[in-house]
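Box S1 | Example of a co-folding query
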Amino acid sequence: MSEKTIFKKIIDGEIPADVIYEDDQCLVFRDINAQAPTHVLVIPKKEIATIDDLADEDAKLMGHLWIVVRDVAKQLGLTDGYRVIVNCKEDGGQEVPHIHLHILGGKRIGKMVSG
Ligand code: 5GP
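Box S1 (continued) | Returned holo structure for guanosine-5'-monophosphate
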């Protein structure tokens, strides 16, 4: 059995997080190293490492995450817009192998992602 990811530990309540939304399928919490005035992470409770590990049957779950993005953005008052980023594996800059959507807002986000 491979070691739990940091996000699985947050899901299991083993380490604290600033959770702003939770339902039976997902969890939303503030990023510990915010890159914008508002920076939260939307993660499924199901352990899926990367986009490449998605199964066809995960389509409904992924659709649900987008609905949660919409609702959380509203809850956070991001009425002027925001950016959603999903990094995939090494070349995409993914550090935590548990699929997650970044929501960044509260300022004008630059057009290009550097690197
Ligand atoms: P990635 O680079 O994998 O797309 O993004 C991982 C994100 O998780 C990073 O923005 C990082 O700051 C955040 N992160 C890593 N460890 C923790 C943690 O223990 N708690 C919280 N809230 N965020 C974390």
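The mean pLDDT is 96. Residues 6-105 form a domain with the HIT family, subunit A fold (CATH 3.30.428.10).
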